[in-house]
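Researcher: I need the complex structure. Ligand is pyridoxal-5'-phosphate. Inputs:
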Amino acid sequence: MNKLAILGGSKAVVEDSQHEEMFCWPIVTEEDEQAVLEVLRARSMSGLDITKKFETEFAEWVGVKHALGHCNGTASLKGAMWACGVGAGDEVICPSMTYWASIVQALSFGASVNFADIDPDTLCIDPNDIEHRIGPKTKLIVVVHYAGHPCDMDPIMEIARRHNIKVLEDVSHAQGSLYKGRMTGTLGDIAGMSMMTGKSFAIGEAGMMVTNDRLLYERCIVYGHYARTGAPSNYNPVDKQVHDETLSRFAGVALGGAKHRMNQTCAAMGRVQLKYYPERIAEIQKAMSRFWNLLEDVPGIRPHRPPLDSGSTMGGGYFPRGLYCAEELGGLSCEKFCEAVRAEGVTACNPGANAPLHLHPAFHEADLFNQGQPTVIAFGQRDVRQGPGSLPVTERINEIAFGVPWFKHDDLEMIEQIASAYRKVALQAEALQL
Ligand SMILES: *Cc1c(COP(=O)(O)O)cnc(C)c1O
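Model: Output:
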């Protein structure tokens, strides 16, 4: 076998820059450009006509009654938290392994966050690490279908129902991911998601809330969509949606002090993207499967994906990870493994994923309300802050997970070449420990 590149051998991957198209995302065609141009020419960037069409089509694709376009994913999740009744002194449960925008919003309501550990196979919230965290003030469980992998929702929903707690799904990584044949975003009470340029469903700065619960939908409107609250409005004269009397009294004002409307250039692009999204993610799934199938018999590395016969899928495959097992490679660290794969020419191979949130100072010290004390304990009845060692799986993320390329096309030659880099390093792990 060829000598490892990191030890002076030749690289397994010739030039991934020659294959830009393989990694280019989102796929933008003249149809997207035309749709966006129409919005510009009509000067309707702040309108709602196109956004509403997009919402209807998106809701139909996901299989929910209500979708509400947002200016970004962070806003959609924030509105959803308020809709679920999260307020000062409440507690929210969330996995520590996620992006900050899954949960920092809870602090802005004066709520505190009790972080749960993740399951080492799914990298999603561990259903067995939820129930003991529930206290009298727990209002909400936020779950994240991490890196496209659906959470194990059946036990999570069972716990939530038993305790009368709502569940918010963060679908930012996972548009189109199935859980036992059911679409993510339809499994909890409400869902929010990012649609920013780097994500799987990518249309610019945009987000979407989806739910089957009419009242939650209306509360999201009241929080950040003043133009839809039934007040006289140039944009929305007939859309008098809010029927909750206590809420409709505030019509015309966004109670969240937030303006969550989606820019219609994004909505227009979203309508075009949605048309092709199912076929495009099917191709991604095919390419990612090809990659992992090529590595099936290689020790130390496994795909991060649900069992193939489970009816669960990885959606658009955003932020693809592999799972690392040092014991199978004579104890070689994940960091060293990744360094050697990068030397073979695969830039995407880095250890870990997101940085654990439960250790971030924002959830220990930040004083959002200028009270002279950390917001996370300012309103609550108990201190739920967690130090190092409290969430062992999450804290080992740099030893158990690594990056792999996010293939957009099922290009046999390219995928084989990149898989061969991982294979080469894993099979010569011993040489790296001398
Ligand atoms: C990107 C992301 C968000 C935030 O979405 P924006 O559109 O960037 O505001 C929230 N949660 C997760 C898990 C994300 O990856």
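Model: Summary of the prediction. The CA atoms of residues 284 and 408 lie 5 Å apart.
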